[in-house]
Amino acid sequence: MPAVTPDRQTVLAALDRVLGWPEIARSPQLGRFLDYIVRQTLDGDEQAIKAYSIAVDVFGRAADFDPQVDPIVRVQARRLRSLLEQYYAAAGVADPVRITLPVGRYVPVFESIGIDEATAIETSEALPPVPSGRERGHITLSWFSLLIVTLGIAALAYALSTWEPRLGHSSVAALRGPSITIMEFQDLSGDGSRPVVAGLALELVTDLNAFEDIDARYGGGESMAVPVAAAPSDFVLTGIVRRAEQAVQYSAILTETASGAVVWSRTIPVSEQRSMQPEALDEISQALSLVLGSPRGPLHLAARKALSGGLPAGAVATLYLCHVLFDLYRETGTATSGANAASCYAGLSETDRQEPSALAAQASLTGEGMVAAGASGLDPADRMRIAQASLQRATASAPLSAFVWEQQGRWFELQGQFKAAGAAYASSIQLNPANADALAAAARLTALQGNLAEAGPLAAKAVSGTPVPPPWYFVVPTLLALRDQHFPMAISNAQTYAIADPELGSVLAVVAASAGGNAGVVNRYLPQVLEVAAFRAAGILPRLRERIGDVALLEEIGNGLATAGVPQRALTAPF
Fold this sequence. Notes:
Elements: H1 8-20, H2 22-25, H3 28-42, H4 51-57, H5 72-89, E1 97-100, E2 109-112, H6 117-124, H7 144-149, H8 153-168, E3 179-183, E4 186-187, H9 200-208, E5 215-220, E6 235-244, E7 247-256, E8 261-270, H10 272-275, H11 279-292, H12 301-306, H13 319-332, H14 335-346, H15 350-353, H16 356-367, H17 380-397, H18 402-414, H19 418-431, H20 436-448, H21 452-465, H22 475-483, H23 487-500, H24 502-516, H25 519-530, H26 533-538, H27 540-545, H28 551-563, H29 568-572
Parallel strand pairs: 3-5, 3-6, 4-6
Antiparallel strand pairs: 1-2, 6-7, 7-8
Helix pairs in contact: 1-3, 6-8, 9-11, 13-14, 14-16, 16-17, 16-18, 17-18, 18-19, 18-20, 19-20, 20-21, 21-22, 22-23, 23-24, 24-25, 24-28
């Protein structure tokens, strides 16, 4: 039976719901992008939806726009696909119509979500693959092939229709670090050369247990179907390996134990030759762990929703809840989120406050000036001494903690000890290669100290491998675009980065916009640069020298700001 096609008004209502979602609303460019392609499709102009027209009509590019030189449409489409996936997995899970964007196309698909199994099966035939952003033979994402051969599309429709309501009723008091049982993947590759399969479950258990809030357990097993009663964990991860589309596809599916509902899935195609090499298992495990271990991944969704406004009144602080609040602070960097996390740690028992992860998180909060509500202020030198003492106790107690070493790296970075910071970040990544925050922090440090070539792969892994990367991940993509003179992309990335770092992000936005001839962006961000208190107290370039060791970058920034109209005195002295 053909899928039911929703009418125009129903689709426009669905569009309004998506555009009103905060994650989309705070990115006007993505909102305009989605609105444009939806309305063009409804008007029957699918053939006109091309990279060129989107770049010119939505992103304001000039008539000589070349999509082969400027990848803004591809990059923004990848971001939009990721956000749509996030929306329909959470806030929009009960929406009667879904708007999806297939990989490799800019024409959206409109899906009616039925209320019975037959309708669910009909409409799910149009499900597009999840965005990959990578070439075949490397790690990519796909829903379609996995859903056909695993638990079935009807199960997915049920999961998506019930997941958020169940999580919405979770008690904060009952939330704890998630547990997950990982079963051996089933080899359905057929005759001929055999891809490496055995051992992937153990690789995943090892990688996921490097995240201190996750309890990963090996489930063994000969069957993908795991009886709910037999699985003691919150989630079960099963998978298959099969040949399809001239590649070997490793497909994973995550099931919530309590309900038996599918809550997440992913397919990773690997070339035939690569699939027979043992190293492939490590790469696949890391790719899956980047998502499953991420604080923005499916394992932590219930806690993030419950704590979005801080620890509720009357709730008892636990290490896990405090760590979730710390992750929310790390993503946003706001004073409110920092105070929420600091208050949570202050409310822990004395024993829990002395746990290594708690000591390290409190050290970062203290060093970065985030304190619990009502706490007395400390001068910067005292804050750093207290933070250092906490980190020393944490590293002594947990020398193999990737999280502790990541926070140690941030302390060194705040102190201007960049070589030591780089070594600490390297230790964190070695201990947990799927720690995206450590990857992004190391990339930022490496780039600002002048080694952009080394920073690029680290940043690419962090940005492309994790769900909805936070704005502070985008400093290296900004610098790469500036280096390559892709000024529209540099402007877009700098504006994203400025959300998290108004100081350097605003400067980079002005520099990129000045070089790219975008007076509107210059006019928007230049006043912000001139109002930064640290710049006014020391001068713009002296302040930036505290963070940037790349002389050529500092020179480029100085020239760009001067071209944009910044007075020479403001560049070099207090103003």
